């Protein structure tokens, strides 16, 4: 059996002095607290980013195809509807769906209130998964490829503001080329995504209805929404789409389309980094303190081992083993604590948020295996390296003085 391992195991299982035992327990608690906080910090930041990203994507898809102009408003310059574009793009196995859309600003008129909204017309095969998930009342519009459907969806914040409910017939006014186009439409469903600026401005209706505002037929659209299967390939897929559409169109990914929102999400990463650095410092200070006390407490033993011929590296390995056996329980406790809190928050939503400020009603937590492994491996590696600092003192301990040390 290895000498360092044998002695280190004996020390690890032996009882310590009360003060030394207290310091070691505090070090273990410090490691546990640091691991738990780092896991939760990363989990909350990534959960927040994921929630906001999914909500923005739910409204606008992954990639937008639009007219090649500098217009940044919601009401885009129209392009010709070409089914061949959809057929060509969907041949790529990485593309899930391609849907045309048509946008027009309109005014909802009620007996007491009027409200301006952006009406987004979508086809019968539109991907409703996001809206369906956030539908709070009513149903989705029954859209058809062969007939106009005068039904629409409205957000809860707007419906509460103007005092309307599902099943009501409402007058909608559109202005095009100086003329007012009046339509009677039925409010079939109410949704609430929590993404305030989007909820307040966008509602969904039939693509054919909006197309007929602009033209007498169905030949024009505002653009196409492209949904891809793997979000990690967003940038290369955007480039590919851009190369495979007509020259008068351009493809733009969701991050470029909503730069301010996604830049803000990237800045949020700095919060997690600051927390990780602070908790790492706390953990390192605790470990260094505990390791120094452990070495001082075993000074006589170090002197005896050196007098018997033990080399400095053998003595250092003894204390490194002791330190690792001190770190591992802290890591296990920290992981159980962090993952346990994350599980409770995910399933029970204990911690809540003001939705109008944070775009969500509960604190989101998303801990991936990648971040879990990186945090644990990084913490273990740094902790072992930190223990070498006080371990250097072993080299300077004289056997004669150490044996007499009390």
Number of helices: 15
Name the average pLDDT: 86
What is the strand arrangement across the widest sheet? Answer: 3-4-9-6-8-7
Task: State the oligomer.
Answer: single chain
Computed structural class: alpha+beta
Order of helices and strands: HHEEHEEHEEHEEHEHEEHEHHHHHHH
Low-confidence stretches: none
- CA-atom Rg in angstroms: 32 Å
Any key phrases for this structure?
alpha+beta; single chain; 15 helices; 406 residues; elongated
3D architecture notes:
The mean pLDDT is 86. This protein has 15 helices and twelve strands. Strand 7 and strand 8 form a beta hairpin. The protein is elongated and about 100 Å long. Strands 3-4-9-6-8-7 form a six-stranded mixed barrel. The protein has a two-stranded antiparallel sheet with strand order 2-10. The longest helix is centred in the first third of the chain and has 43 residues. It is an alpha+beta fold.
